Amino acid sequence: MPLRFKHVSKTFVRPDGSEEPVLRDFSLDVAPGELVAVVGPSGIGKSTLLHLAAGLEQPDGGTVEAGDGNGGPRIGMVFQQARLFDWLNAADNVAIAVKAASADIARARQMLSAVGLSRQAGAYPLSLSGGQRQRIALARAFAIEPDVVLLDEPFSALDEFTARKLRLLLQQLWSDTAPSGILVTHNTLEAAFLADRVVVLAGRPARIERIIDIRRARPRDTEDGLFFETHREILATLERGQT
Amino acid sequence: MSVWSDLQTSRSARTRWPGLAAAALARVAPGALFCVLLAAGWQALALRWQSPLIPDLGAIGTELAEIVRSGTAVQEIAVTLGRIALGMAMGFVIALAVGFASARNRFAQSFFEPALLLGLTVPGLVWALLCVIWFGLSLKTSVIAIALGISPALAVSLTQGIAAVDPHLIEASHVFRLSAAQRLRYLWLPAILPFLLGGLRLAFSLAWKVVVLVEVFGLSTGVGYGLNSAFISQNVGAVLAWTLLFALVVAAIEYGLFQVIERRLTRWQRKSNV
Questions:
Q1: Contacts of A99 in chain B (CB under 8 A)
Q2: For A73, which of A115, B33, B83, B218 is 20 to 30 Å away at the CA?
């Protein structure tokens, strides 16, 4: 199921009343099964793109379309912090999203097992590590059989060792369920490793400085030289965009 | 020995403390010590002054036994608790509506602000007097007086609880399309529960003070009536016996109801080790 931004504009009003245009005439197509990484300097509007796609904000102009027009798409989202209900155990945190999406309830247990947390199904989030909580968040996003998955710096709050494991897990989940998705990240190597395309944003309001195609099938090898090369390319583009 | 190993030793010593019974004793002991010291202090005063205004523990115990034996205690306490329950239910509904509206809507917040301030500053005595005058000697009087007395404090607790709900969780529940009923059950109620329980405790203590006043002024049943009868006959022992009796009921409700519910509903919270 595709995700389309068509000529989208979004302006925020600062507390002093002045306006800050974040997006103007912004267009981007995400193909079915494709993961597009969006990178760019802080405050450029990356998270705004995700909020627009998730329906948390409405565009001032243009349209954001998710799906093929037949009913609302199922959207899974993974945030920087896990954003779990601390008073529900791991299984219930996943199950509540599955129920709300009217998806198959058996998926809750399956996904918990897929992220390696079957033994922690009855555990409350506050008794788990940050990595385990983020695994629950991943299970929740993928358990609803999502059409679209939005990832807002999902691994930036984790230590690198845990983040590496979760990137591999995300890659596996993406291969299994093939939703359309956007990954917002500051980690250019992560963007190169996980995405099918990397969109580099620059300027204010944000424009697409460059789109880099990553031509690698999944599963991918973390040591593949292409990712390091792409990572350098993205950094160079970001530097160019800032000058 | 380093500070770190000192800490380790004291922590492990604490976790080795034997058994549940010992833990329960450790929890109850300080409160029990206070009660014993209070009783001993009172007894010393009574023995020192030898006045009917300060009856000794034996005299209070005799009055207590008499009130309990005659069946009056159970009967009057049940009546008072019934009035408190109805008044709290009514106050809770009002507080829930005002609290939710104030927390979610800026106009409603400004609109209800003077009412809440006024409600918080009006003493329970005033509500009791006004309701006796307006509604006469009926159940309605005590229920409305309690509802008016407790709803401002309860509404403030609810407003604070609702305002403290993590906006990130509200966003997550929106993205995952939780229905209104699911949001209420899985997001709002659990998130405001600590505030709600705090508010209900406060409301219960306020309700008790209001209902006793209403019963003293205008009703012929309830703990307040019992207290008033004791007051008219200048029987300080009976006044204290009634007070003690109701304190025991309040303690039973606190430990047997509020704390049990609280422990059950907040078991997800991580307890600090220090």
A1: 182
A2: A115
